[in-house]
């Protein structure tokens, strides 16, 4: 029975082969000598005695072998022999071995790394108990985008829905200002209702949650996060009961929540949402994220139905419906498609890698035909020889995947260290069990694929011709298949990257509608005891007097990055409360448009006269004017703008008169369509909400970065406790919004470049090899009168045919595959003809160049030499 | 060649080796000799085949071997029965008796 003991004995035998052979020989020698002595004793002559003894013993060599089969290393030993022999063979062909190993390492390493990113970001379950029962509830109206929920919606669902165990709303991030202990700074806060942590199943690591009564009290004690406790309070063990100054009031800390990596990981304060606050009572103020834990056994569809029924009971929203999204998809959904595309790209790289190594093996295996034929004729089984070749492949793949693993570790480390792509769960990415499993599976598949070359050649090996010529033909068909498939895969990758490059170029050339150069922006968070706009007025006054500063303005939006969702009501037409018109809103100081250099289209900009005493006014962008008053003069129309969010004070805001139209400027990222926007003068914000925080925009005559310090000083001269954060140039703001594109472009672009290089090497090698097999043919051709030009043309024509077939196949495949990328594109379709043509041209020229070198060399060969060659 | 001696049925060599060793430790040559002697020279054993058989039996753990000194002061490998080997011998003996009885009966039936 092959027990463990048995295995150990076999393994031990590997180190003692000589010794075991010796023992067997000695034992058998003893036997024969004993028999001889016995024979002599019975009267035989010495010589005959010895002969008879040997005869009785039988075939000594065979019996020794049989004995060794039992006592030696057995199967394991022959494997070891193969490995040792394989090592020696690889060592003799260093160039081959290094090329193959590095190619494999690259393919395996990149795949393993990307898979580990996928595995952590997309496949890991949430770290909540029974996280698959956690859902986020959205609302949808026919023909509109999904929205969040409002306070009244939540109250209805919370009190009436039975499909959820717990329901809570959250709202974040917003900021509180922390002063007193340190330099004034903004803390990132998430507001929540009572059931949030019970729904998630998370307990405080210290202290307690807010009590039910505390949710109805404004201010009061606070719950902090582990991150805040450790990073900002130095992990103070006596943190409970410690008092800190938040928003100008001293509040005690009652508890510390553990770090929840998947869920608002940057939270510093877990604040509460008080149901009494005014903005919680407006039905259309849909800004809250609703999270719930489904009751066991209730399906999401059932829950959706129940919630929809409840929501529709509210008279304002007869057509609304609820939609459940698993919490996990909500958290990682945005990147899943990107990562899937990247994974697809690296798998293509793997295929190209594999094809390259395959051709290497094919050429090498056919070069070893003599060796194979020799061993076959000496009686080795074909299976045994195949095993030898497969062992060599495994060695290559093994070393390759070892190096690949090292590469993957480095890539993953790099991704973690520099937070590449700003991925959710990015810090948890690592090489773990499933990733190693994936790598082993890839390695296994590669070995199988690579066994194809020797298997194929061995199967057709003709012993006598191989012994004569020293070569075995790997049929030209094999090489053609390799070239075509390699070129095809490379085309897909290049087209994919090309689509991203073109999109990126188009996005970069989008006109933002304002001048981002020479503009500096920073965020000023304030709190309630600041004296209304006189505060900002005095800051603006000081800053605009600084040398080198041309204009200064404040706004609650950041051009090219953010604006606030708002609803719009018209004076000149009936408004349907069930289908509110949604636009972007922005509170600005009079010089805002001058500071960012946005063009006036019609009417006028705000002036110092448009203050809280004057009649309320509004400026709209061109899109809004054209959308709602096509062919009419918008100036003089009256509209009301109501922000959606925590600051909303009424169902419908004050009506304001349109006094001007500004050219379309990008209020959100460059690759998003321009929304209708209404700009309002900040002195006329009767809700005072905007004073929670404003962005200060400064136009400078020189490099805006030089102004940063003096601007900061000017602000601190007004209020030393004012945190000045996010100081950056407007150009940086715009550029940062393109970062996700840069990420996917960088990844896909580098894989495409890799594919291009690998396929060029592949085409070069394959053509060169197949030409080396045709030396004689080329010699004959030139002997019967073909010129060098003829030969070159013939070879290039053959090569270009193959490349052409590969390109056509690759384009066809691209049309199928790149459709998955349409979400990442900008301004072009996934079947963009320009990209297709350019990519094909790039590949054809590179591949043709790779083909030209061996073709040229072959055409220059001396025909006499060539004819002698075989 | 004189009269044809019968060859051993497949698989019985192991049993004979165990039986021979049940009399005490012995080297390969001695084991062969013992079997010949016990069979009163009625059996033909190709002496070499004894060795692969010995290794196989040792591999199964029924016998153990070590180098020792033979009766004529030569270095020789001695085999001895293990406890497992003794049990195995008992099992094989009873099986063999059973089998041979059965075969006898069949062969004597008329």
Folded structure, characterized:
The complex is a heterodimer of chains A (870) and B (110). Chain A is an alpha+beta fold and 870 residues long. Chain A has 4 domains: 4-72, no CATH class; 142-319, no CATH class; 335-508 and 739-868, no CATH class; 527-721, no CATH class. In chain A, 52% of the residues lie in helices and 16% in strands. In chain A, strands 2-3-8-5-7-6 form a 6-stranded mixed barrel. In chain A, strands 13-14-19-16-18-17 form a 6-stranded mixed beta barrel. In chain A, a hairpin with a 5-residue loop joins strand 2 (164-179) and strand 3 (185-192). Chain A is elongated. In chain B, 53% of the residues lie in helices and 15% in strands. Chain B is α+β, with helices and mostly antiparallel strands and 110 residues long. Chain B has helices at 12-21, 28-38, 50-60, 83-108; strands at 26-27, 63-69, 75-81. A 3-stranded antiparallel sheet of chain B has the order 1-3-2. The model of chain B has no long low-confidence stretch (mean pLDDT 84). The radius of gyration of chain B is 15 Å and the shape is globular. Chain B has a single domain, classed as Winged helix-like DNA-binding domain superfamily/Winged helix DNA-binding domain (Arc Repressor Mutant, subunit A, Orthogonal Bundle). In chain B, a hairpin with a 5-residue loop joins strand 2 (63-69) and strand 3 (75-81). Chain A binds chain B through residues 1, 6, 9, 23-24, 26-28, 30-31, 33-35, 37, 56-60, 63, 66-67, 69-71, and chain B through 27-29, 32, 46-49, 51-52, 55-56, 59-60, 70, 72, 74-77.
């Amino acid at each position: 029975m092959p027990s463990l003991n048995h295995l150990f004995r076999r393994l031990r035998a590997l180190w003692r082969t000589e010794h075991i052979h010796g023992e067997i020989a000695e034992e058998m020698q003893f036997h024969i000598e004993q028999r001889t002595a016995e024979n002599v004793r019975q009267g035989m002559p010495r010589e005959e005695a010895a002969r008879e003894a040997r005869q009785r013993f039988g075939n000594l060599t065979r019996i020794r072998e049989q004995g060794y089969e039992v006592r030696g290393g057995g199967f394991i030993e022959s494997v070891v022999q193969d490995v040792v022999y394989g090592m020696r063979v690889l060592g003799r062909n260093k160039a081959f071995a290094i090329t193959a190993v590095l190619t494999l390492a690259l393919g395996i390493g990149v795949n393993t790394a990307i898979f580990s990113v996928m595995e952590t970001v997309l496949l890991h379950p949430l770290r909540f108990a029974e996280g698959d029962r956690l859902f986020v509830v959205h609302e949808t109206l026919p023909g509109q985008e999904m929205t969040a929920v409002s306070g009244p919606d939540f109250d209805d669902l919370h009190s009436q829905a039975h499909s959820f165990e717990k329901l809570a709303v959250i709202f974040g991030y917003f900021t509180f200002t922390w002063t007193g202990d340190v330099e004034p700074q903004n803390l990132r806060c998430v507001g929540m209702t009572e059931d949030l942590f019970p729904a998630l199943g998370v307990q405080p690591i210290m202290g307690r949650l807010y009590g039910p009564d505390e949710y109805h009290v404004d201010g009061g004690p606070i719950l902090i996060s582990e991150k805040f406790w450790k990073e900002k309070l130095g992990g103070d063990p006596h943190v409970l009961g410690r008092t800190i100054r938040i928003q100008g009031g001293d509040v005690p800390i009652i508890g510390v929540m553990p770090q929840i990596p998947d869920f608002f990981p940057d939270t510093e304060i877990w604040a509460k949402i008080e149901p009494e606050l005014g903005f919680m009572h407006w039905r259309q103020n849909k800004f809250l994220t609703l999270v719930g834990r489904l009751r066991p056994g209730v399906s999401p569809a059932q829950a959706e139905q129940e919630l929809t029924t409840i929501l529709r009971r509210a008279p304002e929203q007869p057509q609304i419906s609820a939609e459940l999204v698993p919490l996990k998809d909500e958290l990682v959904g945005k990147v899943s498609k990107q990562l899937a595309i990247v994974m697809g790209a690296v798998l293509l790289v793997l295929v190209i890698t594999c094809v390259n190594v395959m051709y290497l093996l094919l050429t090498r295996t056919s070069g070893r035909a003599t060796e194979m034929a020799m061993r076959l004729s000496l009686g080795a089984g074909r299976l045994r020889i195949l095993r030898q070749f497969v062992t060599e492949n495994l060695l290559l793949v093994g070393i390759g995947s070892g190096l690949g693993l090292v590469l993957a570790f480095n890539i993953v480390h790099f991704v973690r260290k520099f937070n590449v792509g700003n991925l959710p769960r990015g810090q948890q990415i690592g090489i773990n069990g499933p990733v190693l499993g994936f790598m082993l599976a890839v390695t296994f598949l590669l070995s199988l694929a690579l066994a194809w070359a020797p298997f194929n050649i061995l199967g057709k090996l003709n012993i006598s011709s191989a012994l004569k010529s020293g070569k075995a033909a790997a049929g030209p068909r094999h090489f053609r298949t390799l070239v075509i498939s390699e070129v095809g895969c490379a085309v897909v990758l290049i087209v994919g990257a090309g689509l991203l490059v073109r999109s990126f170029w188009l996005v970069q050339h989008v006109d933002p509608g304002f001048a981002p150069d020479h503009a500096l922006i920073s965020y000023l968070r304030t709190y309630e005891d600041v004296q209304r706009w006189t505060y900002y007025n005095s800051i603006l006054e000081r800053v605009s007097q600084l040398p080198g500063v041309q204009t200064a303005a404040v706004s609650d939006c950041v051009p090219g990055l953010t604006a606030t969702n708002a609803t719009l009501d018209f004076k000149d037409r009936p408004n349907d409360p069930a289908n509110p018109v949604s636009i972007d809103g922005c509170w600005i100081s009079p010089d805002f448009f001058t500071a960012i250099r946005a063009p006036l289209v019609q009417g006028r900009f705000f002036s110092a006269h448009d203050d809280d005493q004057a009649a309320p006014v509004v400026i709209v962008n061109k899109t809004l004017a054209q959308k709602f008053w096509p062919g009419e003069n918008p100036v003089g129309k009256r509209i009301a703008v109501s922000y959606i969010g925590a600051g909303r004070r009424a169902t419908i805001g004050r009506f304001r008169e349109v006094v001007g139209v500004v050219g379309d400027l990008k209020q959100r990222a460059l690759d998003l369509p321009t929304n209708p926007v209404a700009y309002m003068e900040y002195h006329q914000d009767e809700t005072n909400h905007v004073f929670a925080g404003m962005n200060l925009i400064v136009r400078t005559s020189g490099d805006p970065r030089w102004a940063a310090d003096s601007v900061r000083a000017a602000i601190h001269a007004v209020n030393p406790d004012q945190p000045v954060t996010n100081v950056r140039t407007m150009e940086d703001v715009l550029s940062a919004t393109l970062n996700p594109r840069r990420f996917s472009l960088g990844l896909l672009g580098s894989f495409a470049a890799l594919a291009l290089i690998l396929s060029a090497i592949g085409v070069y090698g394959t053509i060169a090899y197949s030409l080396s097999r045709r030396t004689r043919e080329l010699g004959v051709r030139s002997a019967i009168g073909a010129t060098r030009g003829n030969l070159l043309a013939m070879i290039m024509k053959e090569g270009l045919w193959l490349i052409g077939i590969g390109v056509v196949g690759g384009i066809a495949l691209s049309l199928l595959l790149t459709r998955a990328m349409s979400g990442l594109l900008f301004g072009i379709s996934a079947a963009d003809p320009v990209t297709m043509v350019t990519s094909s041209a790039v590949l054809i020229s590179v591949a043709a160049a790779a083909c030209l070198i061996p073709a040229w060399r072959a055409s220059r060969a001396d025909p006499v030499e060539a004819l002698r060659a075989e | 060649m004189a009269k044809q001696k019968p060859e051993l049925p497949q698989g019985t060599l192991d049993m004979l080796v165990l039986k021979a060793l049940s009399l005490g430790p012995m080297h390969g040559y001695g084991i062969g000799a013992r079997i010949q002697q016990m069979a009163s020279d009625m059996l033909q054993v190709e002496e070499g085949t004894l060795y692969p058989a010995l290794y196989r039996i040792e591999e199964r753990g029924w016998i153990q071997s070590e180098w020792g000194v033979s009766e004529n002061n030569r270095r020789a490998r001695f085999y001895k029965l293990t406890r497992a080997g003794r049990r195995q011998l008992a099992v094989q003996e009873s099986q063999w008796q059973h089998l041979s009885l059965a075969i006898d009966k069949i062969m004597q039936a008329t």
